[in-house]
Prior knowledge:
The complex is a heterodimer.
Chain A: H1 2-7, H2 12-21, H3 23-45, H4 77-112, H5 115-129, H6 133-144, H7 148-175, H8 178-185, H9 190-226, H10 238-246, H11 253-281
Helix pairs in contact in A: 3-4, 3-11, 4-5, 4-7, 4-9, 5-7, 6-7, 7-9, 9-10, 9-11, 10-11
Chain B: H1 2-29, H2 34-39, H3 45-54, H4 61-73, H5 87-122, H6 127-141, H7 144-158, H8 173-206, H9 210-217, H10 222-234, H11 236-259, H12 265-274, H13 278-306, H14 308-315
Helix pairs in contact in B: 1-13, 5-6, 5-8, 5-11, 6-8, 7-8, 7-11, 8-10, 8-11, 11-12, 11-13, 12-13, 13-14
Amino acid sequence: MSSVVDGASPARRGIGRALMADRMGLAGLVLVVSFLLMALLAPWIAPYDPIALDVKARFQPPSAQHWAGTDHLGRDLLSRIIWGARLALGIAITSISIAGAIGLILGLIAGHGPRWLDSILVLIFDSMSSLPMIFFALAVITVLGPGTATLIFVIVLVSFPAYARLIRTQTLALTQADYILAERAMGAGSARIILVHLLPNVAGPLVILICMDIPVVIMLEAGLSYLNLGVKPPSPSWGNILSEGYNALRQAPHVVIVAGIPLVLATLGFTFLGEGLRDVLDPRGAGRRWG
Amino acid sequence: MLAYAIRRLGLSVLILIVVMTAMYGMVFLVPGDPASLALGPRATPELKEALRERMGLDQPILTQILYFFGNVLQGDLGVDVWSRRPVLDQILEVFPNTLILGIVALGWALIMGVLLGCAAVVCRDSWADRLLGVLSVSMISVPSFVVAIYALIVFAVWLNWLPAIGAGEKGEIGSQIRALILPAFAVGIGWVGYLARLIRASLLEVMEAPHIRTARAFGMTERDIIFRHALRVAIVPTISVLAIGFGSILSSAVFVESVFSRPGIGTLITGAVEKRNYPVVMGCVLFMTAFYLLIVTAADLLIARLDPRVRDVLRG
Lengths: 291, 316
């Protein structure tokens, strides 16, 4: 119940200021913004073409020309990492938007619908988040074949229950609130209640959940690409760079070392930001999710 | 509690059946039949037909599904498309490796997590507490397979202290243990952070309890209070988390096993996915889910025994 109250926006400016005061949240914010800029500006800030071959310059360690060195085909690693940010964040944002939309619809159905439907949906959400989903994801990849579309589908499948559960909880809390009853008594329809009251109320916990979910999704994308089951080469996914570097581990360890850094920083950035936001928006930690 | 556990178990089994059926359905909906996909574009029609027959694809879909579940009930998960070895044999051959990896990873995570969590409570609100907080969040969020790769570079390639690949020589405990250290480190590190936070939060709550105040009034030191009285209450919620944690540990094991080319369920299933070896993939999914449901249910029942209050919480 309390998160409904907390999520309201009495002091938007207060949120920003509180986040600035929290050093961990601030570090997260800086990292997230830099990765977002990197993704947006990739075509302009990447010094080289990320898939241009230059076999003569293969396996060069970091230097003035290639700040992060080159890989086994002589491609500039810094450029590949910058374009990789675009890929990683693009996939994460796409799949989380879809998962969020599905979660929103199912959560609303569960929260508003008849009780039997609610209990069925809740049992489904609970059981899905208590199964080892990576194995199901791998099975789906076997059937559909690896690729970006499959990857997004799999990520949506794994992450939508958390969103559905969040929306459902908030919906239930709201339908019992006095001011919603008052609105209804005045003849407000479901659409108005959802748009005007539910969505603004759910925004806080939702943002926290998204911040906590993005690192998981980035990790899943990189991990599956690393196993050659995700984004197909020569696309510069961080996972692809890692897997190509792994094959030349002894010859040119800089490839793997350099490729791991953005992954670590991006996951840290989003988690720190999520933690910071949670401390600011929702001190009781309603957005927590594990397993 | 028992009713809840049984209901959830039943539903999970139901979900498993639905998912397996859906997967079977998807195999048929996707353009291109599995046999030609598995064989590649240059296969002759005869070869394809032979493989289709071997995979049972010439039967109607419903027959296949029923046949599949019938066999599963008899402990038969089918045969590998390529090697023709029974899938269950392959799984049982590598599963102990994954199980040991999971147990050792969770074990060291639990020990370190409890110690760090207690340490944070002992020096709460100091800089050390805040540092431990940042450290645990970092450990939680860094992907385990990146940790695995970095650990491999440092300890196996540069320092040459530990083997880089494999699960050790058969029958040689020493080499098996050496091969286990790096993977277990990488798989467990996220859980060190998570358990440290969990123990810290749950300890802080327990520290407010009346019996702790009494102990304090008797002049016991903070450390004695934590280890003798508070920890045993605070650790109960950890058990259910550990069961769920086992599932996520097995998931990160999938990636970490590949980094270290360590034989296990992870390497088995990822290899099979690449070769579109349906029976092996389905077998692994079924086996792991069944194993996982077993653990979660066992943990539910254990908690109900240890802490009757939990029943009401879980029911609501």
